[in-house]
Design a protein that fits this description.
about 280 residues; alpha+beta; five-stranded antiparallel sheet; 5 strands; elongated
Length: about 280
C-alpha cells in the first residue's frame, strides 16, 4: 500500500468557558498541583490560580508554555489558544500536500525497509495511510469492502470478517486494543474516535479456532499478536512510534506501528516468503 491522504479532521471543540477551565482540566488529568505546574512553567501558584479561575488572561507565550509543561497534544494546544483569544499556532496540513512530500517519502522508505516484517502508518482515527508488504500478507483474503474507501486498522483487526477469526489470542489482543483506544479517547476527547470505539467494541467475538491455546506456555516478553497465516501460527509484538516535537497537527497525529517476530519460527517463515 502507498501513502493516502487522511480524511478531513474536526478541530477540538472550544467551549465557552474560556482557557482557564481547560487548563485546569489538563492539569488535573496530569495529576499536577498548581504549585508544581508553576515551578515547571517558571510562574507562581497564585498566577496559575488566577488563570484557571479567569481572573487573569494568560499571554500567548504563557498558554504555550503551560501546554508544553502539561504535555498537551498539538491539536489541543490550538484549542487552548483559541479559548484564550489567540490564533492557532500549529497548522494542519493535508497529508497529500506537496509540503509533506519529504515526510511521505520518508515514511514509505521506513516501512519498506522493515520488510519482510509488517509495518504500517495510521492517523489519529486509526485510518491506515501507508502499509508495507508484510501487512498486505496478513490481510490476504480480507473482503474488499473492509479495505475501501480507506482501511481502518481497528476495523480490519476486530471485524468478524477481518483478521479477528485468524487471531489465536483474540480476547487478549482485543482487550489490549480497546484499552488503547480508551486511553486515546480520554486524552483527545474525539467524537470520531469514540464512534469507532463503540463500533468495534460491539463486534461479536468469533469462537476461538481449534488449537487456539498453545500446548505449552511461551515466555513472551510482551503480549504477542498470535495470528494464523496459511496454516501456521505467527507471533508478533508491536511497537508504536510518533514524531518528536511535531509542529503540525497532521504530523503529530501520525503513528508508525511495526511488528517484530516474537519467536524464531515466525522470523524464518517471513524471510522464506520474501525469498
Amino acid at each position: 500500500m502507498t501513502i493516502a491522504a487522511s480524511g478531513p479532521s474536526v478541530s477540538a471543540a472550544v467551549t465557552g468557558k474560556g482557557v482557564g477551565p481547560l487548563l485546569r482540566a489538563w492539569r488535573e488529568r496530569r495529576r499536577i498541583s498548581q504549585l508544581e505546574l508553576a515551578l515547571r512553567a517558571d510562574s507562581s501558584a497564585r498566577h496559575i490560580s488566577f488563570v484557571e479561575t479567569g481572573r487573569s488572561r494568560p499571554s500567548e507565550e504563557m498558554v504555550l508554555r503551560l501546554a508544553e509543561r502539561l504535555d498537551v497534544p498539538v491539536r489541543e494546544r490550538n484549542a487552548l489558544l483559541l479559548a484564550a483569544g489567540y490564533a492557532p499556532r500549529y497548522p494542519e496540513t493535508p497529508l497529500d500536500d506537496p509540503a509533506l512530500d519529504a515526510l511521505r517519502d520518508g515514511l514509505e522508505r521506513l516501512i519498506r525497509g522493515y520488510e519482510p516484517y509488517p509495518a504500517l502508518v495510521v492517523d489519529a482515527g486509526y485510518t491506515v495511510v501507508a502499509a508495507n508488504r508484510g501487512i498486505a500478507m496478513l490481510l490476504e483474503g480480507v473482503p474488499e469492502r473492509l479495505m475501501t474507501p480507506a482501511p481502518n486498522a481497528m476495523r480490519l483487526t476486530l471485524h468478524p470478517e477481518g483478521l479477528a477469526p485468524r487471531i489465536r489470542n483474540l480476547r487478549e489482543w482485543r482487550g489490549h486494543l480497546l484499552a488503547q483506544m480508551e486511553r486515546e479517547i480520554a486524552l483527545h476527547r474525539s467524537d470520531r474516535l469514540r464512534a469507532l470505539y463503540e463500533e468495534v467494541a460491539a463486534y461479536p467475538v468469533p469462537e476461538a479456532p481449534p488449537g487456539a491455546e498453545p500446548a505449552e506456555p511461551v515466555p513472551y516478553f510482551a503480549l504477542p499478536l498470535c495470528i494464523e497465516h496459511a496454516g501456521r501460527t505467527l507471533s508478533f509484538v508491536s511497537s508504536i512510534s510518533t514524531f518528536n516535537t511535531p509542529m503540525d497537527v497532521t504530523v503529530a497525529e501520525l503513528a508508525i506501528e511495526t511488528f517484530l517476530p516474537a519467536d524464531p519460527a515466525t522470523a524464518k517463515y517471513l524471510h522464506t516468503l520474501a525469498g
